[in-house]
Design a protein that fits this description.
- The chain is α/β, with parallel strands linked by helices.
- The protein folds into two domains: about 170 residues, Rossmann fold (3-Layer(aba) Sandwich), CATH 3.40.50; about 140 residues, Rossmann fold (3-Layer(aba) Sandwich).
- The strands form two sheets. A four-stranded parallel sheet has the order 2-1-3-4, with helices on both faces. The chain has a four-stranded parallel sheet with strand order 6-5-7-8, sandwiched between helices.
- Helix 5 links the parallel strand 3 and strand 4.
- The radius of gyration is 20 Å and the shape is globular.
- Its EC number is 4.99.1.9.
- This is Coproporphyrin III ferrochelatase.
- Its main location: cytoplasm.
- Keywords: Cytoplasm, Heme biosynthesis, Iron, Lyase, Metal-binding, Porphyrin biosynthesis.
Length: about 325
């Protein structure tokens, strides 16, 4: 008997394939407006600082896509799941991923973004692009919008928090301020009653309860350089403020990110660590999820559930 073939469009922000592609990538982010030489130099310098001549960032996402496909096939052998990649600012673009599914004869598909928390400005944007292309090509497609409280996701994050806390001297754990972080978005999402901040806080609270944390807070990071205000306070400002309060042990837990990308490897490991040295603070961060089996199982669970719901409602 022929297995049903289900396409899975795995969407993420995208990153250049090499340093040579940084300018084209930045131009796409800026809606076709090339960056100034100064802007290009700053972004290129950030990539150079983290990759040291080797460019692993795209490979992280590639491995997650392959890992999800392998997990889906292992957990649900009765169905042939085929994963495709769709990126926001690099090739293959979201629309390319949808087109590739249709070219391969896929007639039903599920879309998921490598981001657990929903915002109209992030996940919503990916879904809108994929949905429009799917409707244009006649592809039946449903979407996972959020999975921020999935038990396996929380399991994976809990392991990371506890392991990172063990890097502090015994007896110091209660003195460590844990700061959960995520990518900032423009403040206007608050007027839109966007669920993003509340979902991030829900994940933070769930983790704090699991680990038994009482000394924790939330902070934003990696805000865009635009005229409009972005959500704050930024983690660098938070670090300065709590140092003045006498806190000199900090654990950053970037729950809004699922992979080692620029916002983790530069904004935390280089920029925040430099400030920590300046302030005389012991700073650690939790390891990224990347292809952790628990994260792959989280994605597999929500994709399969969404496909089942869509199949029933057809």
């Amino acid at each position: 008997m022929t297995k049903r073939r289900i396409g899975v469009l795995v969407m993420s922000y995208g990153t250049p394939e090499s340093l040579d592609g940084v300018e084209a990538y930045y131009t796409h982010i800026r809606r076709g407006h090339p960056p100034t030489p100064e802007q290009l130099h700053e972004l290129t310098a950030r990539y150079e600082a983290i990759v040291g001549g080797f460019f692993p960032l795209r490979e992280n996402t590639n491995k997650q896509v392959k890992g999800l496909e392998a997990t889906l096939r292992e957990e649900h052998p009765e169905v042939e799941f085929v994963c495709y990649q769709g990126l926001k600012h690099a090739q293959p673009y979201v629309e390319d991923g949808v087109e590739n599914m249709v070219k391969d004869g896929i007639t039903e598909a599920v879309g998921i973004v490598l981001a657990p928390h929903y915002s109209t400005m992030s996940v919503g944007g990916y879904v809108k692009r994929a949905k429009e292309k799917a409707e244009e090509l006649g592809l039946h497609m449903s979407f996972v919008l959020e999975y921020h409280l999935h038990p396996k996701l929380l399991d994976a994050l809990q392991v990371r928090v506890e392991k990172a806390l063990s890097k502090f001297a015994e007896g110091e754990r209660d003195q460590v301020r844990v700061i959960f972080t995520a990518h900032s978005l423009p403040e206007k999402i608050l007027e839109m009653k966007d669920p993003y901040p509340d979902q991030l806080l829900a994940t933070s609270k769930a983790l704090a309860e699991r680990v038994g944390l009482t000394n924790w807070q939330f902070g934003w990071q990696s805000a865009g350089q635009t005229a409009m205000p972005w959500l704050g306070p930024d983690i660098l400002d938070v670090m300065r403020t709590i140092k003045e309060e006498g806190v000199d042990k900090i654990l950053l837990c970037p729950i809004g990110f699922v992979s080692d990308h620029l916002e983790v490897l530069y904004d935390i490991d280089i920029e925040a660590q430099a400030l920590a040295r300046e302030l005389g603070v012991h700073l650690e961060r939790t390891a990224s999820l990347n292809t952790d089996p628990l994260y792959m199982e989280t994605l597999s669970d929500v994709v399969y559930k969404k496909w089942q719901e869509a199949a029933v409602s057809k």
